[in-house]
């Protein structure tokens, strides 16, 4: 399932719509967005090591965690942004700040 959230940024009487897809799981999902949105699309993958995931309580479940919906994008797929999520909240926030700075820059907006 793909969940879509729409954020509307209003600044200086200009309305800009940014669509964030929070859960694309299959190559066909990415292919559709790439063909529909072309060059304006930015793909983001958040990654954490198996060790980190286990420390956070994840337990491997056969036939669930090895299903295409869970690992179909793990190899052979390029992303515009890879955000590591193995550290603390500050490290993650620094990575997210880079992404949001890029988005604002592409929209010719300033964060304020």
TrEMBL record:
Source organism superkingdom: Eukaryota
Single GO molecular function: phosphomevalonate kinase activity
InterPro entries linked to this entry: P-loop_NTPase (IPR027417), Pmev_kin_anim (IPR005919)
UniProt GO BP: cholesterol biosynthetic process; isopentenyl diphosphate biosynthetic process, mevalonate pathway
GO cellular component term of the entry, any: cytosol
Pathway(s) it belongs to: Isoprenoid biosynthesis; isopentenyl diphosphate biosynthesis via mevalonate pathway; isopentenyl diphosphate from (R)-mevalonate: step 2/3
UniProt EC number: 2.7.4.2
TM region(s), chain numbering: 6-24
Alphabetized UniProt keyword annotations: ATP-binding, Cholesterol biosynthesis, Cholesterol metabolism, Cytoplasm, Kinase, Lipid biosynthesis, Lipid metabolism, Membrane, Nucleotide-binding, Steroid biosynthesis, Steroid metabolism, Sterol biosynthesis, Sterol metabolism, Transferase, Transmembrane, Transmembrane helix
Membrane listed as a keyword: yes
Broad class of the protein's primary localization: cytoplasm
Cellular location(s): Cytoplasm, Cytosol
The protein's name: Phosphomevalonate kinase
Species in which this protein is naturally found: Hymenochirus boettgeri
């Amino acid at each position: 399932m793909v969940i879509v959230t729409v954020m509307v940024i209003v600044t200086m009487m200009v309305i800009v719509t940014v669509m964030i897809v929070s859960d694309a799981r299959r190559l066909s999902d990415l292919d559709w967005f790439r063909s529909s949105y072309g060059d304006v699309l930015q793909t983001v993958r958040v990654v954490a090591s198996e060790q980190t995931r286990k420390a956070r309580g994840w337990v491997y479940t056969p036939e669930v965690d090895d299903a295409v919906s869970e690992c179909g994008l793990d190899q052979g797929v390029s992303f515009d942004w890879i955000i590591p999520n193995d550290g603390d909240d500050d490290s993650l926030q620094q990575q997210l700040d880079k992404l949001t700075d890029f988005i604002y820059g592409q929209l010719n907006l300033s964060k304020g």
